[in-house]
Amino acid sequence: MNNEELTRALKIINDAAISGQDFVLEQAPLIVREIVAWQIWSSAVAVMLCVLFFLFALKPLYKKWSALDDIDIKGITFVPLVMSGIACAIIFLCNISSLTKGITAPRLVVIDYAKEALR
To answer: pTM of the predicted model, to two decimals?
Structure first.
């Protein structure tokens, strides 16, 4: 490879690096906005699903359980009711904190995303 070919190759590499840098700088705000929006909406959907679960599944089960007189049947019905409620409450609390973080501190969402991406 002579000097002229080497100079042309270096110029092509330099032009590609500059255009790549421009692309990254142009797309960075959009990517950050999408990361924060994804955090907010995914957490909001999970919170809504937990609320719907509490309204439509746990309340009728509780009414049915409280109407029963047999203690043995109450115990069998009560365990899944409590376990479902605990699992839904944990999911609700985790996602409500993620939702709050996405709304009040979007930079923390981006930092957490970058931290996870670098692992």
So the answer is: 0.65
Q: Which two tokens stand for residue 17?
A: 């690096």
Hey, what are 16's tokens? 């590609």
Alpha helices (H) in 1-119, listed in sequence order: 3-53, 59-67, 71-104, 106-118
Contact between 96 and 47 under an 8 Å Cβ cutoff? The reply is: yes
CA–CA dist 56, 88 (Å, integer): 13
Kindly report, residue by residue over 80-98, the tens digit of the pLDDT.
Answer: 777 888 888 899 999 999 9
Give DSSP secondary structure letters for 62-89: HHHHHH---HHHHHHHHHHHHHHHHHHH
